[in-house]
Amino acid sequence: MSRRLLIAANWKMNPPPQGALQSGSPYFSSGDPEVVVFPTFIDLQNCIRSGQLIVGAQCGRPEQNGAFTGDVSIKLLKEFGCSYVLCGHSERRENHGETDEYVAEQVAAALEVGLHPIVCIGETWDDRKKKKEKSKVKYQLSVLPLESDVTIAYEPVWAISGGDPDKPAATAEDAQQMHSFIRSLLPKDRQGPTRILYGGSMKPENARELLSQEDIDGGLIGGASLDPKKFGEIVKIAEELGLKQQL
Ligand code: PGA
Known about the structure:
Strand content: 15-25%
Number of strands: 10
Number of helices: 10
CATH class: Alpha Beta
Order of helices and strands: EEEHEHEHHEHHEHHEHEHE
Bound molecules: 2-phosphoglycolic acid
Strand order of the largest sheet: 2-3-4-5-6-7-8-9
Shape: globular
Helix content: 25-40%
């Protein structure tokens, strides 16, 4: 058994990159790795209609309906044709006050309707300075239904580019250490199959080293995913690396 690499394009609050929906685009999933795009709510429909993209939503509300102005329920996202949903991205935690417990509710709601959750966890720079990175992710994981089929994205908040293409990623060594720690916290029977993605300034220059690490099973890519050429290079690297053997 092996883990299939997953390369995810988090377009954040940006339109789909030029040509993303046309045939031959690097955002189409045509085998290994699995490629998934996360457009804004407004662009979900076009991306799903293309019929060739695997599409996820950047967030969703756990309640099925009700008085939640401006929100979209996870159930509706599933009915609309999404395959994935991001839960607890650090920008949602920071800008919308999403707590660990609320993120866990999103994950449970996604599992209930059959939408695959990618849960984002990771420490801030302040946590790292205080050597609290492990206790931070440990708590973030402790509230999640990890016995289920969830994908985890380890995104150290301090490495997220925020639009700065020169921001350095975590070193491959630091990232591998955290990924292996995260895997060790999963229930025994989920340690082999669970994919743990890395996110935070992944780009063509560092993708091979990061994706070659034993416990890094793909990338959640923001800035570099907006450039089809750069994104295509990362997909190509993942293609060359192939599958990850389970422990
Ligand atoms: P970045 O974003 O690749 O621009 O650092 C990653 C993310 O926020 O998911």
